[in-house]
Structure formats: structure tokens, C-alpha cells
């Protein structure tokens, strides 16, 4: 409850869950191979827990990023992850810690080089 003039604009409602969607198409700054993309992803996931937050949430976000869209939704729901951006690029845990995911861990660029 608040006073008559209070507003809930901009407040995240933890009970209103956003549906996870596929990320929009994007283009890397230069053409890269699948091996380079995999290396970038592995480096991010190896260092992600050092950015703060809980390791269990990072593990759940990795599983969701690598899963199909329906399984990703189930993973974030069961882990109690609050999805700010529907493409999973910005999420929060129940304690309010923020998790930012780069687009290269969420989808492939349009200019990936076929090996």
C-alpha cells in the first residue's frame, strides 16, 4: 500500500511473468566461425559467476540459453528468475541481483561463416 499519489510505474511485478522469446537477429562486427562463437560463449560462461549473483542462477541461465524456447521458459520459471528482457538479455534473481547476457550467448549472428 502507498499513499494516494504513489505510482507503481516502473516497478517489476514478480507475479507477472514475461514469456521468453527468441532473440532478434543480429550481426557480429566481423564474420566469425562457429568455433570462434563457441569459444566466446565458453569464455563468458566460465567467467559469468565472477560478475556477481548466484552460480545456480548462472547455471540455469546457461541451460535456458542453450535450450529450445519452451524448455527455456520452464527453466527460468522453476529457478525463480525474473525476466526483464524477453530475450533473456537482462534478468534478475529473487534477491534482486542483475544478470546481463550478451547476445552472442543467446543466438547466432547472421554473418556466421560456414566451415
Any key phrases for this structure?
three-stranded antiparallel sheet, alpha+beta, 115 residues, Bacteriocin As-48, Chain A
Question: Describe it for me?
Answer:
Mean pLDDT is 86; it is low at 6-15. It is built from four helices and five strands, in the order E-H-H-H-E-E-E-H-E. It has 115 residues and is α+β, with helices and mostly antiparallel strands. A three-stranded antiparallel beta sheet has the order 2-3-4, with no helix packed on it. Strands 1-5 form a two-stranded parallel sheet. The chain is 35% helix and 10% strand. It has a domain at 32-104: Up-down Bundle (Bacteriocin As-48, Chain A), CATH 1.20.225. The protein has helices at 34-47, 55-66, 69-78, 103-106; strands at 32-33, 82-83, 90-92, 98-100, 112-113.
Main sheet summary = 3 strands, antiparallel
CATH superfamily of the domain at 32-104: Ub domain-containing protein, DC-UbP/UBTD2, N-terminal domain
Radius of gyration: 16 Å
CATH topology category name of the domain at 32-104: Bacteriocin As-48, Chain A
* SS-derived structural category: alpha+beta
Helix content: 25-40%
Mean pLDDT: 86
**CATH first level of the domain at 32-104:** Mainly Alpha
Q: Beta-strand percentage? A: 5-15%
In terms of per-residue confidence, which ranges show pLDDT below 50 for 5 or more consecutive residues? 6-15
Overall geometry: globular
Q: So, CATH architecture of the domain at 32-104?
A: Up-down Bundle
Number of helices: 4
Distance between the termini: 59 Å
Order of helices and strands: EHHHEEEHE
